[in-house]
Prior knowledge:
- The protein is an alpha/beta fold.
- It has five domains: 1-147, no CATH class; 275-347, no CATH class; 365-562, Nucleotide cyclase, GGDEF domain (Alpha-Beta Plaits, 2-Layer Sandwich), CATH 3.30.70.1230; 567-748, no CATH class; 758-909, Roll (Diaminopimelate Epimerase, Chain A, domain 1), CATH 3.10.310.
- The protein is built from 34 helices and 17 strands.
- Strands 1, 2, 3, 4, 5, 6, 7 and 8 form an eight-stranded mixed beta sheet that branches.
- Helix 8 (128-140) packs parallel to helix 23 and helix 29 packs antiparallel against helix 30 (710-731).
- The longest helix has 23 residues, at 437-459.
- The chain is globular.
- The model is unreliable at 33-48 (pLDDT under 50).
- One of its GO terms (molecular function) is adenylate cyclase activity.
- This is Guanylate cyclase domain-containing protein.
- InterPro entries: A/G_cyclase, Adenylyl/Guanylyl_Cyclase_3/4, Nucleotide_cyclase.
- It comes from Vecturithrix granuli.
Amino acid sequence: MNTQTTVFDQCRTREQIQAQLQRLVQELVFPAQAQSPQTTENAVHDRGMPVDLRVLADVSYTDLKERDHPVFLISEICRLLIKMGERESLRQCLALSHQLYPFKCQRNESWHISALYKGIAQIGLSQTDLGIKNVSIGLSGQEVFSIAALDRALGYWALMSAAVANKNLKLARVFSEKWLRSSEEGALEQECRRAKLTMLLLALLFGDQETCVLLAEELKTSPFDEWQDAGNTLLVWTYMLKDGQYRPGSDGNSPYPLLLGVSWPENACSGAEDEQAAYSGEFSNLCALRRSVCRPEIARTLPTDLLEKYADFLAQWELAGPLCELEMVLKERDHEQAVQGQLSRVLGESILHAILNKNPVEPPVVRQSDAIILVTDARQFSTLSEQRNPEEIFDLLNPVFKILSEELEPIGGTILEFIGDSIILVFNTFPQQHTEIMEILIHTIRSLMRIYVLNAMSQQSARPDIRLGVGINRGPVALGYLGGLKRCHLTVLGNTINLAARLESASKELPGDVIVSAACFENNRPDVWAAPLRVNFCLRDLGQQYHPRNIATPVHLFGLRPLLPYWVDFVPMGFVACPEKGVVYLDTGNANCPGIIDHHFEGCQANSACELLLRIPELLLEHIQGLSRSQLEFRLHHAPDLDCAAALYAASELLAGHPRTEILRQLSDYVSLVDQARLPLPHKLSHSLYGIFQAHQRLSLSAQNDVVLSDLCLLEAGLRVIDAAVYLLQQHPEERNFASIFQFQPTWFAAERQLLEEDQVCYAEDVQCRSHQYIARVNGLPEPAVGLWLDHPQSVFFKLWGWNDPNAPGGNGYAFLAVDLSTSDKNRFMIGVDPARDLNLQGLGQLLEAHEARKRKLIGKERPIHPIRYPADNSDPWYFGQGHNYAVIDAPGEGTVLSAAEVQRIHENWQNT
C-alpha cells in the first residue's frame, strides 16, 4: 500500500481528515513553514496556525511549479476534500482540480485525473449531469495511463451516488460492485467497508434477502468503530427483513458520507410523522419507508390510502419486487380497486377512465379538434437490436421510456401506444385535458437532456447511447375503438397523427432534435420569448415548403434543440490548455492549437473567438472528427460573456449541419466589436443584442438559488438571447444589425428592457451627482488615462455604461472605474478595468496592500495573521486580482484603513513599470 493510500485510508473521522488537510495545505502553500509528514494531529493544533483552505483557489500554477512534488500534494488534498464530502470541501476540490490540470499536461501525463476529481466534486455539489461526464472522462484515462485503484474507487463511488440521485437504483448496484472491486484491488479497508455498507443498503431497498444476509455476515466479521451507527442500522434492518420482527434502530450516523451528495438516514420522515414529506421522492425518505415497511405483514397494518401512496413511491424508484408484494396486500383489501390500479399503470389513467365509462360493444368515435400529438423514435435502434439479445433490449428502452413518462404524463400527456422503440403521446385528446404547447416543448427538451445524462452513466456500464427523434403536430383527431367486437383497442386516428410521425422521421435530416409544425403555435408563429426564463431550447424556422413523405400539402416547420446540446464545463480566466480528444475550448485556452478556439494568443488576427471559429472552422471540425455527440465537451471561462455564448452557438450550428452562414458571420462581426469595447449604437442598448444579453443574464442569475450553478445559468441566459436575436434577423433579413434587432418584438424580454432603461437613467444621475474623474495609469496603455470615480452608484450596470460612455474623454468610454462602496463602519473600494480591452491592474493591489500594512502599523490596528490568505501575509488583505486576470482590485472584506483620497492618490502615483 503506497503512502497516499495509507493517509487516505487511515483518516477515519472528520477531525483526522481536517488535521491531514492542514498539514498538506501548509506544505503546498507555505513550504518553508511546513512540517514533516510525521506531524501528529495534536502538533498541528498546538501550533495555533490554521490555514484557510480557500487559499487553494488563489494559488497560481506559476507559484505551485516551484514547490516540491506539487502533483502529489494536490492529489492527496483533492482525495481528502472528496472524502470529507461537505459542500465547502467539494468547492475547494473543484477549484484545485483546475490547478492539477496544467501540471499533468506539461509533464505529458494523464489529465484525466483532473477531470475525475472535478467530476466527483460536481456530483457532490448537485451538478450531477456535468459531474457524470467528467468522472466518465477521468475513468476512461486508464485506457492510456494507469489510474490508481483509490481514484477508480472514488470515481465509481461518485457514479453510484449520481445513479441514486437520478433514481436509477439498478445502475447504482452496478457501480457499487465496481467500487468494491477497485477498493479490493487497492487494499483499501475503509473503502471496502463503505462499499459493502452501500451494497447492503441497496439490497435492502430491493428486498434482496439472500444478498442482505451474505453482506451482513461479512460486515459483522470486520467491524469498525467509526461506522458502528450506520452498520447497526443496516444490520437491524436486515434482521427485520429476515424475520419480520420490528426492532428500533439508530439514525445511521456516518463519520463521513456514505453516499456523495445524497442523504440516506438524516431528516427522513415516516408516513405517520409527516405524510406529505414521507412520499416526497427523497432518497432518505425511501430508506425510512422501506425500513419501516420491509415485509408484507407490516404493510397489512397500514391504512389503504397510505399503502396506495407507498406503492406509487416504490414505482417512482422502480422497485418492482417490493411493489409486487405491496400490490398483493392491496388485492387482499380491495381486489377490484387493486386491479384497476395495475391496469392504470399498463393503460394509463385517461385510457382506463375512458374504457370504464364507455360501452365497448358499440364504441363511439369522438372528434377532438385541437389535439397535440407527439411521436418519438430511437435512432439506429434496429442496428442496436441486431447486436443484442431480446432481454437486453428491455434494459435499454425501459429507462428511456420511464423518463418520457415522468416528464410528459404529469403535464397532461397520455401514452397512447408503445410500438417497439417508439412512443405515441397525445395531449388535449381526452376530456378535461388541456396542455399548452410551451409546456410540452419545455418538458420534451428536458426529457432529451435527462436521456443524455443516462447515456453518460451507461457508458461506464458498457451500454450504448440512446438518441431520440421527436415530431410534434397539432390538429383534429378522432378518438375511438379500433377492432372487432371480441377484441378492440382505444386509439387516435387522423392526418394529424400521420403528419406527427412524418415530422419525427424528418428529424433525421433537418436541423433539430424536435421537429414541430407551425400549427402548434398560435397564428402559426412562436412567441416563446415573451416569457424567456422558461425557454430551455433553441428554436429555428425551417421554412414553409417542407414536403413530408406521402403528405400532399407542404408544411411550415420549426426545429428545436436543447440550449446546451453538448457537455459544457468552465475553467478559470486565463486558463492555458493543451489539445484533448473530445474537448473543445472556446474563448479560453490561450493557445493556437486544434480544439482551442481562443483569440488571445499572440499574433491572432481575429477579434473574438466567434470570429476565429467561423474563419477557421477546421479548428473545431477536424478536431472532433469521428466522435459521437455524447463524446464532445466544450469548455468556456467562468462568468461566460457574449463571445463565449456566441462561439458556442455557432459551434452548435456547425456541428448540427445546415449552418446559417451569413447570419453567423453577422453575429461574429457584432461580437468582435463588443469584445473590443466598441459598442455599436450604445444609445439603443434596450433594443440591442448586447444590452438584452446583459440584462437577461442578471435577471436569470437573480432567479438562481444555487451559486455553484451560476456559470451554467449565465450561459443558458446568453444563448436564449442570441437565439431570439438570430430568429428575428432571419425573419427580417433587411435589418442586418444586431445593435437594434429587438425593435421588431417589443413584447419580448420586457423586464430586461425596463431594467436597462431605468438603469441608464440611474447611471446618468450617478455621473452628475456622485462621481469625479481622475488620471492614472493602467497596464496596457502607454500613457496615463482618464478614469471615473463613482461614489455609491445607484446604477446596476455602471460598468457597461462607463466602459462605453460616449461622453467620456475621447468618446470611447473610461479606461478604468473606481467605486466607493463604504458603509458607516468600514471603508470599501474597488478599481476595475474592462478585460475585453486587454488592460489590467497587476501590481496595484500589492501597492495598496503595502500602504495598508504601513498605516495599520502606524495607528496600531493590526490584522489577524491566521488563517493566512494567500498570497498575502494576513487573513484579510487587499484582493490583488489574481483570479480575474488582474482586472479588478478589491479592498479587504472587513474594510480598509485607507481613505478614498488616499486610494486615489496611491493609484495616481502608481508607476506600472
